[in-house]
Amino acid sequence: MSTTTTPRTKRQAKEAAGPYGNVSRAVNELDDRLGVAKARTFLDKIFPDHWSFMLGEIALYSFVILLLTGVFLTLYFVPSQSSVRIPMDFPYAPLRGQRVSEAFYSTVNMSFNVRCGLLMRQMHHWACDIFVGSIVVHMARVYFTGAFRKPRETNWLIGSTLLILAITNGFLGYSLPDDLVSGTGLRIADSIMLSVPLVGSYLSFFVFGGNFPGTAVIPRFFVLHVLLIPGIIIGLVSAHLFLLVRQKHTQFPGKGRTEKNVVGTPMFPVFIAKTQGFLFITLGVTALLGAFAEINPIWQFGPYDAAKISYAVQPDWYMGFLDGLLRIFPPIEFASFGHTIPLEVFIPAVVFPGIVFNIAMAWPWIERKFTKDNEMHNLLDRPRDVPHRTAFGVAFFSLLAILFIASSTDVLANFFHVSLNTVLWAMRILTILVPIVTYPVTYFLCIEMQEGGRLIGKRKTANIVHRTTEGEYIAEPAAVRPGDGHHELDALPVPSFIEGIDEELEAPHEGELVEPGVRAVTR
Amino acid sequence: MTTENHDHAHDGSELLSLDQVTASSPQMQPLARDPKTMETKISALFVLSTLCFVGFGVAYWQDANFWLYGALLGTGMSFVGVGLVAWGKYLMPRGPFVEERHELASTPEERNAFAAALVERGGVTIKRRKVLGTLLGASMGAVGVVSLFPLLRSLGPLPGDTLQKTDWKKGTYLVGSNGRRVHIGTMTVGGSMTVFPEGLQDTDNGQAVDQTMLIRLEPNYPESNPANFKTKTGRENWGPSGYVAYSKLCTHLGCPVGLYEQQLELLVCPCHQSMFNVREAAQPIFGPAPRPLPQLPLAVDANGFLFAADGYTEAVGPGFWERS
Ligand code: FES
């Protein structure tokens, strides 16, 4: 509330505003209009201290980097397939005088002639790989700890949609420079569309505006890549964060943690400091990768030419599992009644990813079918305590990993000096065998670990093993050293003041909460 | 409440209340054993980062190497980041702090009131006006369907039979990428080249659809007596002077089958390693390609130039629904 009586003097006005001077005045002004002071609890929002909660932050910050570098790239990229001749004074000699599309020319031009252009391009590409990667790892964390359970199913759905959008946008962006490798990727995408029964050729013609390659695809993909899909991603990320604040964080079980509270560090200023730190670290790592790790050097591939092919065709890593399955799938085309269904394309490239993403999205409901568990869950599971879920997840990921490896059958054959045929059959057998083996192995490992891990939240003390002269081994518990005990302080409600931290006090030496020399460990 | 208390009793801790918090509570102390040293370290990081950023400015002004920009920017950012994280982790109150979760669910009364509002207001406005509701539904349905026309149909022409055809016709001369016709003396045995229909070598369609691999399998014969190379029954006259021509589009996913393995007489697709036996009608012998590459019937004119004796007899490239 602002003041009710009109102050006479400046001093009175100052006092009326509140004890914190300008800040008080600013809060008053904002609160008159927006009621911001009611949102103070937002500053107190508690974030659990566990390293695995950082994975989602990395995803968010790599998306921020994608937006920043992406805006830079749009200033120089020309989304057009009309042809231009590369000038004779172009810095990279092998391209001089070649007829290429404007998309290709503007991309190599920004790499060679715009200061920081190449850095921004490589940072953009690396940030994309990190974005998709951190979403996958973040989802794995959410999966294996059961964080997707009621009430957070909606956020799981939003998250998996974001993964699909991230992969799609990665592919669209990869296609834009119109170089030899991305053009081959587009040709493959076109053939995959064609493989869809009934509507395949219409799908292909509507995407490419006619027969492949046409001249429409790059301008179209550009609009999708820089406007439509990022727009949807921003909307969904906002919804994701809103739900996260509304439903509050999950946390691992531990001292003082219940289904009804959250223990950790407050939003302001502790979490803000750390999370902004992570933003800068992500930026720093991406910039270093962009500087020192060459990625997608399209001037070496050359412009797209439908009749040429590069021998190093490798999609970005997140497409690898599809490429792998396409390689090892048997050639079983269905052709009769005057129609063809290219099953050797349709099943691995359309049906299989469809199943993978549908299982992923529907997982909270699939699991509920088995567990009949309709309770609210704010405390996380340890993966070993839910052996079937963990085993299924490991089997699922190991299947994808094998398919990813299968995407380089030729490299493997060269490397191990065996025939391509041997590698092919090895991969076919492993694809079926590995998930079947990893499931029970993980399951029994979990059961085994449950037996051993009764000491939740406590570190085991070290043993010293002696060998006697007779060759017998004897284990003796080592003397307890400072730092061995897992000392956690009791959780405090967030005080409104942070000032007055007494650095002389040397708190660890005070009182009986902490023994001398033992550092409290926040988890 | 009882269960909550029980939980606390169970792990031997209690929630402290706010008035127990003082500036000297251990939770309010920094985690660093020696905050002064930590502060010095973090200051050093921030100073270094400033130097890096200034260095970046200088490098940009001097138009330095691009990796120097990245190195300075990246190192500077990493220093700031590590400094901030250390500040938060070691110099701010170590916690832990706790907040209560508020029940998300409303009371049964509130739920009932909400459902009642929906049903009863809806009942008044919709149920009594069934006709209006139906008509509105019909109108929305109609606009939903017709909006597909501009959204989808405008995107491209209908495929028709374009996917079934190529530009190769009876009498089309073969040309290389330089546009010159191919004489039967051009290639020695084991040679291969990419050919296009004459005049279309620089067009999108010529390159994407019509591209064809020309391979010489047998030695030269006198022009008066052109020997034909037969790859399959019914193709007795398709390979004059030991030349054969196959569509260069892989029947798997349409990559150009650009690699001719001369010793084994195999065409290899670099995308997923499909291999086609050139002597036997390009039958696939390895890999995921389901069909042989279509063969183009060739002929030689009086001057010794190769031309197509006919177009392709089947659709080239990957499979699709309308392909018979
Ligand atoms: S495209 Fe030729 S093998 Fe896949």
Write the layout of secondary structure elements.
The complex is a heterodimer of chains A (523) and B (324).
Chain A: H1 10-17, H2 21-34, H3 40-44, E1 46-47, H4 54-74, E2 83-85, E3 99-101, H5 102-112, H6 117-144, H7 153-175, H8 180-194, H9 200-208, H10 217-247, E4 261-266, H11 267-292, H12 298-301, H13 320-328, E5 334-336, E6 339-341, H14 343-371, H15 387-406, H16 409-416, H17 420-452, E7 463-467, E8 473-477, E9 492-493
Antiparallel strand pairs in A: 1-4, 2-3, 5-6, 7-8
Helix pairs in contact in A: 4-6, 4-11, 6-7, 6-11, 7-10, 7-14, 8-9, 13-14, 13-15, 15-17, 16-17
Chain B: H1 2-11, H2 35-61, H3 66-91, E1 97-100, H4 108-125, H5 130-146, H6 148-152, E2 174-175, E3 192-197, H7 204-208, E4 212-216, E5 243-247, E6 259-261, E7 266-268, E8 275-277, E9 283-286, E10 298-300, E11 306-308
Antiparallel strand pairs in B: 2-3, 3-4, 4-5, 6-7, 7-8, 8-9, 10-11
Helix pairs in contact in B: 2-3
FE2/S2 (inorganic) cluster is lined by residues 250, 252-253, 255, 269, 271-272, 274, 287-289 of chain B.
Helix/strand class of chain A: mainly alpha
Tell me the strand order in the biggest sheet of chain A.
1-4
User: Oligomeric status of the shown chains?
Assistant: heterodimer
The whole-angstrom Rg of chain A is 29 Å
Beta-sheet strand percentage of chain A?
5-15%
Number of domains of chain B: 3
Write structural notes for this entry.
The complex is a heterodimer of chains A (523) and B (324). Among the domains of chain A are: 10-43, no CATH class; 54-255 and 273-323, Up-down Bundle (Cytochrome Bc1 Complex, Chain C); 455-522, no CATH class. Chain A is built from 17 helices and 9 strands. Chain A has helices at 10-17, 21-34, 40-44, 54-74, 102-112, 117-144, 153-175, 180-194, 200-208, 217-247, 267-292, 298-301, 320-328, 343-371, 387-406, 409-416, 420-452, and strands spanning 46-47, 83-85, 99-101, 261-266, 334-336, 339-341, 463-467, 473-477, 492-493. In chain A, the strands form 4 sheets. A two-stranded antiparallel ribbon of chain A has the order 1-4. In chain A, a hairpin with a 5-residue loop joins strand 7 (463-467) and strand 8 (473-477). In chain A, helix 6 packs antiparallel against helix 7 (153-175). Chain B contains 7 helices and 11 strands. In chain B, the strands form 3 sheets. A 4-stranded antiparallel beta sheet of chain B has the order 2-3-4-5, with no helix packed on it. Chain B has a 4-stranded antiparallel beta sheet with strand order 6-7-8-9, with no helix packed on it. In chain B, strands 10-11 form a two-stranded antiparallel sheet. In chain B, helix 2 runs antiparallel to helix 3. At the A-B interface, helix 6, helix 8, helix 9, strand 4 and helix 11 of A face helix 1, helix 2, helix 3, strand 1 and helix 7 of B. Bound molecules: FE2/S2 (inorganic) cluster (FES).
